[in-house]
Amino acid sequence: MGKVNSVNRSFMSVRQLSTAGLLVGITIFLGISGYGFIPLFAINATILHIPTIIGAMAAGPKVGAMTGFFFGMFSFIQAFRSPAVMMQFASSYNPLYALIICVVPRVAIGWIAWKLFRILPGKLAVRAGGAAVITTFLHTVMFLSLFYLLVGVPFAQHQGVSPVAVAEMLAGIAGANGIPEAIVAGVITAPILSALYRIGNR
């Protein structure tokens, strides 16, 4: 019995598993329903990563990493029928590379969000918003960097352009998508986390 209890404590509590399950469900719902995308001028900002960030801040890095893992797996499955040229190419060129591109950044942001929330100064809402902004932009950079490192050159050949042109395109995406998504994440995360902490302290 002692060994079982030790294993349970070293992994995740029932509360953490329940929280992670709820957040995974929300992430999948946002993705399938289309509510996970917010039109911003010429682009769509995604908020699919926000449950991962909130889970990490509210319940710890294990919950964040688990939510991020299932978010990444959902994205990997979606990549096979995605209209986005980049992920469509990655999934057909090398499914393992596509899996790494989809999963690794999403697991990483679970830990990054938790760490930033702990070390940033200021009130809770400020720390939550700031951590969400930084984490979201880092998520974009990690995703695009992994894409370039793993399939950037073959993607350039497939498109008939130079690898430099692909790098420039990805940098443009980081600015055009990453910055608005980071701002949206900060605006959404700060009040939600503040509300969760108020409810938890009652």
From TrEMBL:
Transmembrane listed as a keyword: yes
Keywords: Membrane, Transmembrane, Transmembrane helix
Origin: domain of life: Bacteria
GO MF annotation, one: transmembrane transporter activity
Pfam families listed in its UniProt record: ECF_trnsprt
Keyword set includes Cytoplasm: no
Family annotation (InterPro entries): ECF_trnsprt_substrate-spec
Spans traversing the lipid bilayer: 20-41, 53-77, 97-117, 129-150
Protein name as catalogued: Uncharacterized membrane protein
Species name: Allisonella histaminiformans
